[in-house]
Automatic annotation (TrEMBL):
GO terms for cellular component: aminoacyl-tRNA synthetase multienzyme complex; cytosol. It is found in: Cytoplasm. InterPro entries: Aa-tRNA-synt_II (IPR004364), aa-tRNA-synth_II (IPR006195), aa-tRNA-synth_II/BPL/LPL (IPR045864), Asp-tRNA_synthase_2 (IPR004523), Asp/Asn-tRNA-synth_IIb (IPR002312), NA-bd_OB-fold (IPR012340). It comes from Podospora fimiseda. SUPFAM superfamilies: Class II aaRS and biotin synthetases, Nucleic acid-binding proteins. This is Aspartate--tRNA ligase, cytoplasmic. Keywords: Aminoacyl-tRNA synthetase, ATP-binding, Cytoplasm, Ligase, Nucleotide-binding, Protein biosynthesis.
């Protein structure tokens, strides 16, 4: 086989050695000993003869071109499927002692293989979730497993998808290189359902290494990456590939244990978000992606032809969740795509990401909403280490990170924007000695403040409240006691913003006034329709927030880029796959 890799360790197998037979006892002690020695000799002779006969049979079969196993291996066809004897279908995850000695059937990828001489081969078989098991195949005397079959199995291209039937055995020692280490499969049938090419564009070992470079314009393939399909024993000798190579080889990118783990953590974040909110009376809804007017003033919006008109892709579900509240829902949330036509080529930005939004009616204070928002994030961050311990460990083996520091319950950190700026001025780096309470923060400022908060309060999660009016959109409600600031906040994870939220203006007169004060025409498309929502009927005071699922996953795991947390990252320069 072209690019079979010898597994790092010699596989341990329970293929039984040829054994002799016991002798019979004689009447006296001396005679007994003699008989014993004779029996031993005979047994050894018999074993030698048996082994020689086996060798001869295999050699004969091979030399004569006979192959008694020819129906047990090869490319899978409808005929091979129909001829296959029934066997218990298993998943590696659920393999147990009850399967030992039984014939089972499995569909899996060939992750690694190694021929040992002409009569034995070892393979690593992998199922979803990085479940791997060692498979062993050894030519036998009766030819039901032939030398040709062994050779075929050892030569299957890596990452081919196969169907095997096998007997489950216990290996003599645990197979350390496989996730399922306490069992091995003694293969009796092997059919290739879908063959991989002889040379993979990127092999699994490379796919599992940290990404070298996230620039989209970089040369597509690093020297040697394409050629390498064998994982050397020394991991550091495995080259790394660029994001571009990963995305050009999206199938292998996704097959890597690290990407599978990130995707599983992402699913868990979504689940935790949804269940927390549902338990608190929130109702899910789906906002539209296609909209008729650019929602937030028209900047950074994707335009597309729409019959005789023009349509836009929604930059946020903001207005729609407010319409849901105006329409009689007390608490709503959504999870869906959000589009930003920003030419931001940074590790924090994508042109399409998954927004997790919520909006709720408030009774007396917008902190009722902040309590929920902070609560849902803390619930996610506190639950993940336990619920995804294995996945987090896999990610850390590729992208190392320290434990995410969380505040003790009741000791959550909420600073006002002004308090944050004061901290930066007094204890931050020199360049932030003069930061203003009335200008938005830059990314370096956010990072410096996050580092100070971590040092001072021992948390990687905190809230910054009361953003200056200048830094917030027209719909943000001003603080009645200090109109220079708004009832609006951001949340930070490992020094980076993941969420913006706050109270919205629900009175159409106040809204129109504020829109004018921002220099925006209240009659302009999109804006007029927005104000009209509050003119149609009395809308209760409400607040909410929007956060990026991709960023929550990426910063929780301390990934070098948000692109790694997305299934199919979209950037200004990349629209495929
Ligand atoms: P930034 O200043 O980082 O560009 P923003 O202030 O434009 O973000 P918001 O409009 O407040 O972000 O969006 C709410 C949340 O959506 C952000 O906190 C972030 O988690 C996520 N988000 C915003 N823009 C992007 C993007 N381009 N790619 C990925 N996630 C994003």
């Amino acid at each position: 086989m072209a690019d079979a890799a010898p597994p790092a360790e010699t596989p341990v197998t329970a293929v039984p050695p040829v054994e002799g037979e016991a002798g019979e006892a004689g009447p006296s002690k001396k005679a007994l000993k003699k008989a014993e020695a004779k029996a031993k000799k005979e047994a050894e002779k018999a074993a030698r003869q048996k082994a020689a006969a086996e060798r001869e049979a295999v050699a004969k079969a091979a030399s004569q071109g006979e192959d008694n196993a020819k129906d047990s291996y090869g490319p899978e066809t409808q005929e091979t499927i129909e001829k296959l004897p029934a066997a218990l279908e298993i998943n590696l995850k659920t393999l147990g002692d009850e399967h030992i000695g039984k014939t089972v059937e499995l569909r899996a990828w060939i992750q690694n293989s190694r021929l040992q001489g002409a009569k034995m081969a070892f393979v690593e078989l992998r199922e979803e979730g990085n479940w791997t098991i060692q498979g062993v195949i050894a030519a036998n005397a009766d030819g039901t497993i032939s030398k040709q079959m062994v050779k075929f199995v050892g030569a299957i291209n890596l990452e081919s998808f196969v169907r095997v039937q096998a007997t489950v055995e216990k290996p003599l020692e645990p197979v350390k290189s496989c996730k399922v280490s306490n069992y091995e499969l003694h293969l009796t049938k092997v059919f290739v359902i879908a063959a991989a090419p002889q040379m993979l564009g990127m092999n699994l070992a490379v796919a599992n290494r940290p990404i070298a470079n996230f620039t989209d314009e970089e040369a597509p393939v690093e020297e040697g990456v394409e050629k390498l399909s064998i994982a050397p024993a020394d991991e550091l000798a495995i080259p790394t590939a660029t994001m571009l190579t990963h995305l050009d080889n999206i199938v292998m990118h996704k097959r890597s244990a690290v990407q599978q783990a990130i995707a599983d953590i992402r699913i868990e974040v979504k689940h935790l978000y949804r269940s927390y909110l549902r338990d608190r009376g929130f109702k899910e809804f789906e906002p539209p992606c296609l909209i008729g007017a650019a929602s937030e003033g028209g900047a950074n919006v994707f335009r597309l032809p729409y019959f005789e008109k023009e349509a836009f892709l929604a930059q946020s579900p903001q207005f729609y969740k407010q319409i849901e509240v105006a329409g009689g829902r007390k608490r709503v949330f959504s999870i869906g795509p959000v589009f930003r036509a920003e030419n931001s080529n940074t590790p924090r930005h994508m042109t399409e990401f998954t927004g997790m939004d919520l909006e709720m009616e408030i009774n007396k204070h917008y902190h009722e909403a902040l309590d929920i928002i902070e609560g849902v994030l803390l619930h996610i961050l506190r639950s993940l280490p336990e619920r995804c311990a294995e996945e987090i460990a896999i990610v850390r083996s590729v992208y190392p990170s320290e434990d995410f520091l969380l505040p003790e319950p009741g000791k959550e950190v909420r600073l006002t924007f002004a308090e944050g700026q004061k901290l930066l001025r007094e204890e931050g780096p020199e360049e932030f000695r003069n930061v203003s309470d009335f200008e938005d923060m830059s990314t370096p400022q956010e990072k410096a403040l996050g580092a100070l908060v971590r040092k001072k309060f021992g948390t990687d999660f905190y809230v910054l409240d009361k953003f200056p009016s200048e830094a917030r959109p027209f719909y943000a409600k001003e603080d009645p006691e200090n109109p220079a600031v708004t009832n609006a906040f951001d949340c930070f994870l490992r020094n980076q913003e993941v969420l913006s939220g706050g109270q919205r203006i629900n009175d159409p007169v106040e809204l129109e006034k504020r829109i004018r004060s921002k220099g925006v025409d209240p009659e302009s498309p999109g804006i007029k329709e927005y104000i009209d929502i509050f003119r149609q009927a009395g809308v209760p005071p409400h607040a909410g927030a929007g956060f990026g699922l991709d960023r929550v996953v990426a910063w929780f795991l301390n990934l070098p880029s948000v692109h790694l947390a997305a299934y199919f990252p979209r950037t200004p320069k990349r629209l495929s796959p």
